[in-house]
Amino acid sequence: MKKLLFFVFSFCFLLQAHAQQIVREWVYKPDNTSKSFTASLLTRNGDVLLTGAYGPNVVGAIYQKIYMLVKPNLDTIWVKNGSSISRGGNDGIIQTPDNGFAYYGGQQYSNPNAAGPSLHRLDANGNTRWTKQYPTGYWEFGQKILLAPDSGFFFGGWSQMAGTPRSFTLARADSLGNLKWRKHYNWHLNDNLSDIQHTRNGNIIMYGTTITNTERIKLLLVNQNGDSVLGRTLSIIGDPNRHERIFWDRCTITSLSDNGFLIAAEIDTIPATGQKLGMMVKVNANLQPQWHYIHRSMPNNVLFIKAKELTDSSVVVLGFSRQVAAGTTPNNQFFLYHLGKKGGLQNIYTFTSALGQKIFPIVMEALPDSSFIIGGYAIITSQSYPMAFYLAKVKIPGLPPAMPAPAIVSGIKPDFSLYEINLGQSYPNPTASEAIIPYSLPKNYNQASITIKEIATGKEIRRYELKKNSNSLTIDISNLSNGLYLYSLEIDDKPVATKKLAVMK
User: What domain of life does the native source organism fall in (predicted)?
Assistant: First the structure.
């Protein structure tokens, strides 16, 4: 297959293997347009799909969407142009069950009544099959997309209706893009969503920043019906005068194998100097902070973006220095931080590009051989408007391989039919003496149970084994204290759905 023949401009080279290394890097389209890769995914056959956009560096300009599929060695398989969109910021791309793809994002700035976020369905070769647009009549910015059990889609972003503050939003569409529901989660003033991800027990984690007097990290767990399960606003340092925030179109949240989450964020310096300190925060399944790491040394003003969990429960975090003081960190470097399972810094791996004056990494995918694909954009000073799509493959010998991503929606066996599984809302709710929990189970399973947990601590206080061919469970809650509890359906030791139970006597 032809490699990079249609590239306007490219560099390819190999470096000798000495410890960590840039194995290969190249740039694409270093012309007079603004451009960047903004999202990526590791496909089922091990290739990497990237999506990005390019256009005039003018507020409100129309951008051209592109999709690019590359092999693990960065050889290009194909590049396809997508639709015109009005912005090139945060967006999402997923692989569909038929090995095609779906992209979600985009918003016209000038007229919210005429356009809204859009869903684009692609075939396996990157050709657009259909597009759905969702006009709202108010500002709604599409951010991220997830696959739903029926080959449909969840997509999240943030919205702002007239006279109301910004809020998290989540929508559900079927496999043809027909909208089933859209929900808004008003909490505090000016909530900006940064990312959504499947949890390992079948829920969805929503993550961003909420602004009151200062900025704080906001986390919201919802179930697959979009109902709120649990939410928290975090204050890691506890200083009311310091901002703890998300860089909204770069930072992400990572679902971990212990059902917790790893958050990329930043915090102001003391005293405030205009620089920010990169911060990683680990929370447990109940969204309670477990540890945090703040990068206070050189390189300065680091932004943490993406993270990958390794099989030993340590993590690798992608970062770069946004503002570089004279005589300190070179402009053309980016970094991978290796943190232990309890947040201790193990190592900082520095990668120096031979191509760009400045590298802005935005996306990262982990390959099975302890190498990583890094993408974003580069500044090329030899060009009249020096911006180019950037892609690199880096390797750190000796690192454990990356942990597999959570299975779509739940993690149950792939031969189960998700249509057969359902956890209903308990009734009556609230209740004082007993509660009835309806459910449906797949035909092909070994064991199923329902657990009751404290909502504050996540501590399991009850477990009920479910009988074959049954569809409801009646439980005595007369000895439980007033308050909210979580109940979860587990199939073959895999949590697949969680809902709330209210006790009021």
Answer: Bacteria
Kindly report the number of other CB atoms within 10 A of residue 90's CB atom.
23
Per cent of the chain over pLDDT 70 is 83
Burial of 70 (0-12, 13-18, 19+ CB in 10 A): buried
pLDDT tens-digit map of 305-345: 999 999 889 999 999 887 655 445 557 889 999 999 999 99
- Write the pLDDT tens digit of every residue in 68-104: 999 999 999 999 998 776 654 567 899 988 889 999 8
Please give the Cα distance from 257 to 181 (Å, whole number).
30
Name the amino acid, one letter, at 230.
L
- Angle at the Cα of 159 (from 157 to 163), degrees rounded to 5? 165
Question: Strand 253-255 relative to strand 261-268: parallel, antiparallel, unpaired?
Answer: antiparallel
Question: Which residues does 49 contact at the CB level (< 8 Å), separation at least 6?
Answer: 40, 41, 43, 67, 68, 69, 93, 95, 101
- Range list of β-strands (E), 242-313: 244-245, 253-255, 261-268, 276-283, 289-294, 302-309
Q: What are the structure tokens assigned to 17, written together?
A: 């293997």
CB neighbourhood size of 5 (10 A):
8
Q: Around Cβ 442, how many Cβ atoms within 10 Å?
A: 18
d(CA 243, CA 83): 37
pTM for the full model? 0.78
- Cβ-contact 71, 425 below 8 angstroms: no
CA 246 centroid distance within chain? 12
C-alpha dihedral (488, 492, 493, 497), degrees to nearest 10: -20
Instruction: End-to-end CA distance of the chain: give it in Å, rounded.
Output: 70
Whether the Cβ atoms of residue 183 and residue 160 lie closer than 8 Å to each other:
no
Helices (H), 32-72: none
- Of 60-64, 266-270, 464-468, the least confident: 60-64
Phi then psi for residue 457, to 5 deg, are -110, -20
Q: Mean pLDDT across the stretch 478-500?
A: 85
Greater pLDDT, 57 or 243: 243
Compute the distance between CA of residue 333 and CA of residue 450 in angstroms, rounded to an integer: 50
